Structures are given as C-alpha cells and as structure tokens.
Amino acid sequence: MTGKSTQVHIHEKLIEKAKEKLSGSLLTVNEIAYELGFERPESFSRLFKDKTNISPLEFRKSFK
After folding, report:
1. Residues 6+ apart with CB under 8 A from 62
2. Do 36 and 18 form a contact (C-beta atoms < 8 A)?
3. What is the rounded distance in angstroms from the CA atom of residue 25 to the CA atom of residue 32?
4. Which superkingdom does the taxonomy of this entry point to (predicted)?
5. What is the pLDDT of residues 39-59, one digit of tens each?
C-alpha cells in the first residue's frame, strides 16, 4: 500500500524509537542498540547515520 518494503518500515520504527531513547534517556548508545535488538552497536550506529545523516551521538548532543 505504501510502496515501501517491510524492511524500510522496520528501520523507520527503529529509528523513531532510537530518537526517543537518545533524546529522553541516559542510556548509552550501546545500551540503546542492544535494547532495540542489535547484536552489534556498530550496526545500529551505521543504520542510524544512513537514515538520518548524523550519528546517534550527534543527535543526542543536539538536545543538550
């Protein structure tokens, strides 16, 4: 219906959840990655940067 693949929808939801956690919690990026189901934090950071054009840390710093 949307023209997007299932994987794209999953990634969008993961990024949405990650943004919530990065802006509203004191969890580390690694802890957030593990909570979201990533086995390797590097994979999470790469996906986040691919989808938002900034790293998770850069995103978090924008809220300080």
Report:
1. 54
2. yes
3. 9
4. Bacteria
5. 999 999 999 999 999 999 999
